[in-house]
From TrEMBL:
InterPro entries documented for this protein: Cro/C1-type_HTH, Lambda_DNA-bd_dom_sf, TransReg_Diox_bact_type
SUPFAM superfamilies, sorted: lambda repressor-like DNA-binding domains
Naturally occurring in which organism (per UniProt): Saccharomonospora amisosensis
Domain of life: Bacteria
Protein name: Transcriptional regulator with XRE-family HTH domain
Domain HTH cro/C1-type stretches: 31-85
PROSITE patterns: HTH_CROC1
GO MF: DNA binding; DNA-binding transcription factor activity
Chain residue ranges for the region called Disordered: 1-20
Pfam families: HTH_3
SMART domains, per database record: HTH_XRE
Length: 143
């Protein structure tokens, strides 16, 4: 059996196809984690998302990389944001926001809905504080 050039040397493979395969595995693992957190069977998610059971199984195992449309259907079935799946699949960049939003998004113990609620609350506090600071500077007497 002949070794491919990407696998020569230290044994690490970094071809573009390997990266695509890694993304497929990552999104599949993420979907499985979200499905398990929601306590939904593969068959149930298949029905909710309108995706065949074998195809969904292949996605979770990293054999297939789903399209944006399929990700949207899966997100609907899981009741999570399609954006979360797009980010995980590498179709969108992770929104920036600093250490607190990043920590919330990275927490694997929270559901996507819980993450979104926390992010909404956090942003509402930040807006409130900005508004308070603005009104404080507007009402201070000039010297």
């Amino acid at each position: 059996m002949k070794e491919t050039p990407a696998a020569e040397g230290n044994g690490a493979s970094t071809t573009p196809m390997d990266k695509v395969a890694d993304i497929g595995r990552d999104i599949g693992e993420y979907i499985r984690l979200q499905r398990n957190n929601a306590k939904i069977s593969l068959r149930q998610l298949s029905k909710l998302a309108g995706v065949s059971n074998p195809y969904l199984s292949q996605i979770e195992r990293g054999v297939r990389k789903p399209s944006a449309e399929i990700l949207q259907q899966i997100a609907k079935g899981l009741r999570i944001s399609a954006e979360a799946l797009y980010v995980q699949a590498g179709l969108l960049d992770l929104p920036s926001g600093g250490p607190v939003p990043d920590a919330i998004r990275a927490d694997t113990e929270l559901s996507e809905r819980q993450k979104q609620v926390l992010l909404d609350v956090y942003e509402s506090f930040r807006r409130e504080n900005r508004a308070a600071r603005t009104s404080d500077t507007d009402t201070q007497p000039e010297e």
